[in-house]
Amino acid sequence: MEIWINPACSKCRSAISLLDAEGAEYTVRRYLEDVPAPDEIRAVLGRLGLEPWDITRTQEPAAKELGLKDWPRNAGARERWITALAEHPKLIQRPIITADDGTAVVARTDEAVRDALSR
């Protein structure tokens, strides 16, 4: 199991605390420092069953600078979104836990963390 975190994020710290309390074995990836490549983002999206716009933090200053709210949300624009996430990792929703069964969850709640643990 791997968890993508921003240490400054309270939701990330909460998820780590819950994983620790449950005695889970996991690897931490500080994705702002160890930025995922487009292929990794595609793989995580596949595991999540989501599209890139579903995991984009649209209120971040970079999102506003890029004008993301006006970008199409369709198959033709998918690669453009993935490129934006790779070039501006702060736009990636967090934390993301990749579970041992090959799935993943955006673990913003205790319930989502527990869901990842149960997989």
TrEMBL record:
SUPFAM superfamilies: Thioredoxin-like. Its EC number is 1.20.4.1. It holds the Pfam family ArsC. It is an enzyme of class 1 (oxidoreductase). Keywords: Oxidoreductase. One of its GO terms (molecular function) is arsenate reductase (glutaredoxin) activity. InterPro entries: Arsenate_reductase, Arsenate_reductase-like, Thioredoxin-like_sf. Belongs to the ArsC family. PANTHER family: ARSENATE REDUCTASE. This is Arsenate reductase. It comes from Streptomyces griseoviridis.
